[in-house]
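1st attempt posting a full record on here, be nice pls
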Amino acid sequence: MSGVGSIDKALRVAPPDRLVETLDAYLSATHGAKNSTVWLADYRSTTLSPAGADADAPESVGDQLGPATRAFASQTPVLEAREGQAFARLHLPVTAWGERVGVLSVGLDAARLTSERPRLEELAESFAVALAAAYRRTDRYHMDRRRTGRLTMAAEMQWDLLPARGYDQPGVKFAGQLEPAYAVCGDHFDWSVNGDWLTVTALNGMGTGLDAALLSTLAVNAMRNARRSIPAGQSSPGDLADQAVLAADAIFSQYGGARHVATLLLSLHMGTGELRMIDAGSPRMLLVRGGQVRDVDLDPQLPLGMFGDTRYVEERTQLEPGDRLFVVSDGVHAAVRQNEPTFGERELSRAIRSTRLQPPAEAISSVMRSLRDYHAGAELADDALIICLDWSPRADP
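the predicted structure (as tokens):
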């Protein structure tokens, strides 16, 4: 038996910490692979590390890193095959619903490449879904991916809280990134897809260190509880006001107004482009349309949890096909160097314009590089959050 169905079954019955070995054995037995390497992206999505046994023998996979990195960055397969040679290697993006997990590199006889390649590309997609699920059930892949640094306790909480760092479906592409990746504290984002609605929240928790992470954790879970507690039929998944009220009440009941969370709440109807928004002391939002970048000015409302019995009012706008939204926290737009304009005043719009041909994940990486350049290589003085969202009408089926 061969094909995607059989690898799906093999991965389902394998222990979650043995997916890499299960995949390697399957590739050898079913596709005639000579070897395979699974590469996992680090928390910055800038470095790939080999998983499994290959992690202990980097010299055996070092020559694969360049092509694997190209496959990860471009999100397209990269082929290593020289004319007249009997061996070829195919590097395939491992991506689940738009979240870039890593890369699968497969070495096989060049003569089998044409027949095997379509099945290998489908197999990489199945493996991505299984690997994304396994992250919740074993520490093994967390340990493999974090060789470039150790997470602080606050960062551990923030990364573990994320549903995923990206989403990609017809009509909508979305990605987000937190920095400094290994020491992030209070900045955070969350998202959920329910029917036609994509709901996104961007948060800037008050305070520093573990206290800020605990506050953001409470805020994210309060928002999730609010989304899931509104009875079906009472409001659509895109309605934000009731969600904001329930979340604000939960935070206020815990801290009594002593601590609060600056939050931007967004709901996008993925079919029509209707965008609903609440600026509760929010991070900053910018719209890219027709090559121009402009701020989206919203009516400021109270941060979540500042006072009891706070009510919130939605604002609405209509996106146009090809629109791009950037959401950035104050660690980005208000970043400052001595005796110079802020990053938001000086570099942000230019950095965003330069990403017009890049997908959201790469666009975020480019803006983050510009922010690091602005800081001249020094560690960021404040948490930095960047979200990028692209919308276009779905094609008719």
